[in-house]
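ok here's YitT family protein:
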Amino acid sequence: MVYAKTRNEKEWKKHITSLLCVVVASIIMSINIKSFVRAGDLIPGGFTGLSLLTQRSLNVFLHIDVPYSIINITLNALPAFIGFKMIGKKFTSYSVLMIVLNSFLVDLIPITPITYDPLLVSVFGGILNGVAIVIALSGRASSGGTDFIAVYLSNKLRKPSWNFVFGINTVILTVGGFLFGFEATMYSIIFQFVSTQVIERLHRRDHKVTLLIITKEGETIGQELLEYTHHGVTQFEGQGCYLKENKTMLYTVVGADEVKDVVHLIKKLDPKVFINAINSEGVTGRFYQEPIE
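and the structure:
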């Protein structure tokens, strides 16, 4: 088979990739919290925002200084348990690693504000937050909390659900507004909106692409696609109108994150192949999606 690899090699590569993504995402998210979020007194939404809101409330109203790590890990305990039960053990394990690493990094990294302009803080902080989450998701992990909800719903509904989570985060931000004023809350909503849009644009797992493949190697390519992607392939026989040559058209739908590898595979089998990739608004029926485990 083309590009055949042993199962152990694939699993080891996935494990190393996941660990690297978790570490990089944790560092970016921690720096973002200590630079943009702290500078603008923002509440970034999710359980990260809930942890910061809890920490700030304890400090202001009860004069108790509790480390961020203790609050964040405690609040994420229940979502992590649910993640183990409903999403998957590997995904949740990597997510727990990110939660712990990010929590302690936030306590250790010194506050280093880049700017105090609230709009710049909201926009660029939101971009960094979204990028960190996308990197984590690429490594089959998450930052915990509401990310568990988003991933579960995305897998269940077969479509992106981050805007739904944005609605949940707005409730958290509203509570923060009543406690500490609505100006920072409104900027926090901008932060969360930007972050959500970055995730929607860059996280491609939930987006589908239709491939129309015109080739003379229909049987070979069709079989390879079935083995490589596990997606169904439909074969049509036809004739080219220009050279009157017999051709095969293969119709298949793949994840947007698979397109690059699939096209590379097809071109290896037929350098003269013609491929039309079309973004699919939605897919009804059975569609194989690789487990995030």
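+1. The chain has two domains: 7-202, 208-280.
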